[in-house]
Amino acid sequence: MEYTARTLLGAAALSLLASTAFAETLTIATVNNGDMIRMQGLTDDFTEKTGHEVEWVTLEENVLRQRVTTDITTKGGAFDIMTIGMYETPIWGKNGWLVPLDGLSADYDVDDLLPAMRAGLSHDGTLFAAPFYGESSMIMYRTDLMEKAGLEMPDAPTWQFIREAAAAMTDRDNDINGICLRGKAGWGEGGAFITVTGNSFGARWFDEDWNAQFDQPEWAEALNFFIDMMKESGPAGYATNGFNENLSLFQQGRCGMWIDATVAASFVTNPSDSTVADKVGFALAPNSEGVDKRSNWLWAWALAIPAGTQKADAAKEFIEWATSKGYIELVAENEGWANVPPGARTSLYENPNYKDIPFAKMTLQSILAADPNNPTVKPVPYVGIQFVAIPEFAGIGTEVSQEFSAAYAGQQSVEEALAKAQALTNDAMEAAGYR
Amino acid sequence: MATQHSRSAARFMMAPAVFLLLVWMLVPLTMTLFFSFKKYLPLRGDSMANGLEWVGFANYVRFVGSSSFWPSIQATLVIVGGVLVVTIVLGVLLAMLLDQPMWGQGIVRILVIAPFFVMPTVSALVWKNMFMDPNNGLLAYLWKAFGGTPVEWLSQAALPSLIMIVSWQWLPFATLILLTAIQSLDSEQLEAAEMDGAPVLKRFWFIILPHLSRAITIVILIQTIFLLSIFAEIFVTTGGAFGTKTLTYLIFQRVLESQNVGLGSAGGVYAIILANIVALFLMRIVGKNLDA
Amino acid sequence: MARAVTNNRKAINTGLAWLIGLLIFFPILWTFLTSFKTEAQAINDPPLFLFFDWTLENYAVVQERSDYLRFLWNSIIIAGGSTLLGIVIAVPAAWSMAFVPSRRTKDVLLWMLSTKMLPAVGVLYPIYLLFIQLGLLDTRIGLTIVLMLINLPIIVWMLYTYFREIPAEILEAARMDGASLREEILYVLTPMAVPGIASTILLNFILAWNEAFWTLNLTAANAAPLTAFIASYSSPEGLFYAKLSAASTMAIAPILILGWFSQKQLVRGLTFGAVK
Hints:
Oligomer: heterotrimer
Shape of chain B: globular
Order of helices and strands of chain A: HEHHEHEHHEEEHHEHHHEHEEHHHHHHH
Largest interface: B-C, 105 and 94 residues
Radius of gyration of chain A: 22 Å
Number of strands of chain A: 10
Helix content of chain A: 40-55%
Mean pLDDT of chain A: 91
Strand order of the largest sheet of chain B: 1-2
Number of helices of chain A: 19
Mean pLDDT of chain B: 87
């Protein structure tokens, strides 16, 4: 009874929209991740409902960032909707470059967005981008290899346990590496990973006066630990491995453990791509013994409307469609529950259909454990866990992670890498007027 | 003899090309110079509309003061020089081989020139993923098949790998120009030298190489122009890590990754200066060789 | 008297040349082969050469995801348009440099080449702002103009070297016969320069086709050519070598085929005056 009433209401609202609004053509810039590709395939559903057409500009992550940033800072207006992340949203929102996402329909239920995601995509309490999917990071491990090593993975392990387990699982003759982690240069790749690792060893990027902290012992400890562990149990050439390379290694059964984005869980448990789909367990990202911060990050890919677009209303309709509960159901219908965009809505984790998904619980726990306002043991002047939410960070983070990658590859010592990181970070912060 | 009339007509006909290139050079150049003296951080809300703060030579000082500056000049010169050496040496050898009588010469030529048509992005992607990946790359399988440990090409030998990828793309160009030059060599002269019993090396050194000098100059000139600004290959393969950050890439990092347009523009001015030094140097040789 | 070449020596040459040719071509061949494999076969250990189940699935997936023909069409328009526009502007300039040289000619020529050395990334912001002002962002005409300007120096220079090889006496004879300047260019000069012009067109078409900085940064949905098409397949989530190969093949196949069919013209003219 109630159901039909709501459908009727919805239909009425839609027909009202369709009759009042012009049919527009929206240009949407997005990243070439699996969930977005799926969204492209389902665009017809949106066009059917609203009459608006969609033109996709799909680019790989680095090119996309460069492209949308140029466009937004110059007010180019090439796109009606941009896919951006938790790093860009608050900065752009603060500059007034994004259309505030207020006045969303009751049906959209904005309060259903996970609080961590909503907070990370807002500036001063105003939502500027709607999360398409969200993620934290966690441990994915091979249950069979763990058993063979005679160990048992706790729900919340320490780095010391991980290192021990990695060494026990490593079997070089059979091409099995105990642990696969990101070493690739780039702030969103290895930079993100080493930053959260640093957090879990008590390190931080800046002190409260924006002085770089790479000369502090916590960083040396974290970096040395990471490099030693990877030497013992990591794959060849890990200094150039990013998310993609590790995903492929894990799917081929060549990693005992992999600590990375929670969204990867659906890829490694998908039998059509993964040779180890039925042997994967999950655990919280580790911390160093005695350190009160875990190494899990928080990220969301979100849809935002650049200020100045002529088509803000139609763009808002699209965002409501793509990040709605209805969209999740649409994907579930077409591709199964394991493939719906995760980590954005509370209701998804209360949905009985989703409870059976093996990685659902740990994903939610990891997301809930992440606190962007309080990322480190010692106090910091910035927001963000695996990044520092200031405009200069993308540049600094990439350069610092390039120095670290050179240390992973054995081209310089940890001390050299840290000294260079310290110098270049302070220099860049000076250039930006912080110090 | 050119009359006064044809002289003015000539000037008139040159005008569009000269004018367009002048605009194409001057407008960005002026703007780059303008920005290089300004504090321009777009992500901090600086924009032309709001007016930009004049900072004098601060950007210039900072750009050179960065620990990345001199390594980037070095990387630029190593890559340009490396690719020039590889393509010219292999190009001369290949051109001489292709000049010999053989079966299926046309098809071989087609095979050899093919890389020149491949987009730099595609070639970088293919080399990086399908050949140089230390786990799934073809070269890793090859190494393992012979009992070796796979080389981590793009981290442990990043510069040589990059030089190899770029050389692969430009070898066809060098080969073609050198081949045309060799084909124009007077074969009677060579035969005479052969009859006189001049050894192969001598023939190469005293007859073939001097004949090719003009073609080699052309190859150097054209390739240098393109190589100074290679970008896609670095962007795709190493992202500037492991000592492959060229001056062009450093400017990219400053402008687009750090979003510091003033600093990047100062870098742009340095790049123009470097390009002009190289150009001057080249023109010395080319001027002498092209003097026809 | 032709040199006597033994079949033996010819066989050695042939073998060596084919070996090197195949080696140079191999990365392209491998990409082509991989595009017909499944993703699992693409990273199979040991690598699979010819004996796998050939599938067209990757091409189907790529086509379904992105409208290939639209990117292709943009590439053709932009590369073709910029080349033709460049030729139209460059022919008169090259003519006057070649036949009415002044003391400055060589300087002008080298200055033109030096404009190519301006690093593109350094001027992205100025050009982007300019494009917004002029309403050229994400338009084919805007990209056509930019690529024309980028390649104009090369075009002028190539044409200049061809024109110089044409004996001036012929032109003077035509002039004696009362040919106007226009007729001189149209009926005397151009036919003699056709091979040179053809190879100039080809080379610049290739350069414009492969240009990947401006074409990527100044376009969105409307004018995006194949360089943008490939940017949506590089580094996706996971290693999709087979799909990457299919997309790569689709991006380079048209220009490769064109290049092969016209290689005689390209090679004949590609001398830059290196041959005297």
